[in-house]
């Protein structure tokens, strides 16, 4: 990945006589990194994955599961996806990306029929310098 502003022709980088391939995006420990360090690719993939889990949440509600079980499923299967490595990328994500994530949370709230923790709280925790 090259983070320089001027994108000229660069000499290939070699390690142990093997050329290192340049890529536009790379997935490392579940986080999609792009060469321009925007988090749109990561956010889109996270939202897509969470929406797939919303299908199962709807199915559980259709089967008549209690609100407690639905909330537990949400916390285990959906919230864990939305908050994975959140301290790394949430603070620098755009308002559009944050809105897409919050849309998933609101959809889950409508399915469950109760209030769920908002991702805005995570944003406040990230900006708090006294928080560990």
Automatic annotation (TrEMBL):
It comes from the Eukaryota. Transmembrane segments: none annotated. Residues 39-80 form the Alkylated DNA repair protein AlkB homologue 8 N-terminal domain. GO terms for molecular function: 2-oxoglutarate-dependent dioxygenase activity; methyltransferase activity. This is Alkylated DNA repair protein AlkB homologue 8 N-terminal domain-containing protein. It comes from Nothobranchius furzeri.
């Amino acid at each position: 990945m090259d983070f320089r502003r001027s994108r000229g022709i660069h000499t290939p980088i070699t390690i142990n006589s093997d050329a290192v391939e340049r890529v536009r995006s790379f997935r490392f420990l579940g986080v999609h990194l792009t060469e321009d360090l925007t988090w749109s690719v990561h956010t889109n993939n996270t939202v897509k994955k969470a929406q797939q889990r919303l299908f199962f949440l709807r199915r559980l509600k259709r089967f008549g599961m209690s609100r407690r079980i639905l909330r537990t499923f949400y916390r285990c299967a959906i919230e864990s996806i939305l908050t994975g490595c959140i301290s790394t990328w949430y603070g620098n994500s755009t308002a559009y990306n944050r809105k897409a994530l919050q849309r998933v949370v609101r959809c889950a709230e409508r399915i469950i029929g109760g209030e769920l923790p908002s991702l805005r709280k995570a944003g406040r925790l990230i900006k708090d310098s006294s928080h560990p």
